[in-house]
Design goal:
The complex is a heterodimer of chains A (87) and B (187). Chain A has 87 residues and is mainly alpha-helical. Chain A has helices at 10-14, 17-21, 27-39, 41-59, 67-85. Classes of the chains: A mainly alpha (87), B mainly alpha (187). The complex binds zinc ion (ZN).
Chain lengths: 87, 187
């Protein structure tokens, strides 16, 4: 049986990062993951980079809409409204 | 409707590659939404309903465009096999001292100024890395990390199991992180 003391390698840890962030690791795996992080600056940086990547991806949703896309949509609305209400 | 437009464009682009086709699909969706509003029964949220219509229309268009591989097939294709999150060369060999530990460890981004992280160029790199992903991985990371949907919403929308969703998200995030790491190491 695996124990907390049993060493997790860095190569194994990077494959568990998403499960760790999703909080779906079984308790023993999570303990081994955190025990490794506590002594490994490389993996600590890796996890921080992953969190930063997620944060920056989240900011893409704030990107503005190109005006031509908006204009086309508004045109489609006007046409539709016109056909249905005779305005 | 303006509030939903960027999200709708990204979702449409998960199914159709072409931007102007995606915009047409959004227009069709809004027309369908307006026409169907009276029949909307409020059993799901309005947002869920709109995105379901959008996904259906976009899928139909994708079939017409010849991208007829069913999404469920893409999901299993992209989730199977082995795909390391980090190139194996970055780790020490199995027979070395400290086997499979970092040979070339990731650097801290903590010292980089926030302006660099938020620069247009950085965003563009992230956007391109996401665009380059295979469709199912792109769909999952788009909905989870860009749109901020939770795992349950994404399962419902894409019809993906929790296990497959996690694999696709893992592969997608790992590639985007790697692209960002390469870019930030450049200058
Ligand atoms: Zn490590």
């Amino acid at each position: 049986m695996a124990t907390v003391e049993e060493d997790l390698s860095c190569q194994e840890l990077v494959e568990l990062v998403t499960a760790y962030l999703e909080m779906t690791l079984p308790p023993l795996e999570q303990a081994r993951f955190e025990a490794h992080l506590a002594i490994c600056p490389g993996c600590t940086n890796y996890l921080a980079q992953m969190r930063e990547t997620i944060r920056l991806a989240g900011m893409l949703s704030e990107e503005t809409i190109p005006d031509d896309g908006k204009a086309k949509l508004l045109d489609a609305f006007r046409t539709w409204k016109h056909q249905h209400t005779g305005e | 409707m303006n509030a939903h437009y960027p999200a709708m464009l990204r979702v449409a682009l998960m199914y159709v590659r072409n931007r102007s086709v995606a915009e047409e699909v959004i227009q069709e969706t809004w027309l369908a939404v307006l026409q169907g509003l009276a029949r909307f029964e409020g059993r799901s949220s309005l947002k869920t309903w709109i995105f379901r219509i959008l996904a259906n229309r976009a899928r139909t268009r994708a079939v017409h465009e010849g991208r007829s591989v069913p999404f469920s097939a893409l999901i299993s294709q992209e989730a199977e096999g082995d795909e390391p999150a980090v190139e194996p060369e970055r780790f020490r060999p199995a027979d070395a001292q400290w086997p499979r530990h970092w040979a070339s460890a990731p650097q801290s981004w903590g010292e980089l100024p926030e302006e660099r992280m938020l620069a247009l160029e950085t965003r563009e790199r992230i956007r391109l890395a996401i665009e380059a992903l295979p469709p199912a991985q792109r769909a999952v990371i788009t909905l989870r990390d860009i749109e901020g949907w939770d795992a349950g919403e994404v399962s419902g929308h894409l019809g993906v199991t929790d296990g497959n969703q996690r694999v696709l998200l893992h592969r997608a995030r790992s590639k985007v992180r790697a692209a960002l790491e390469r870019y930030l190491a450049e200058v």
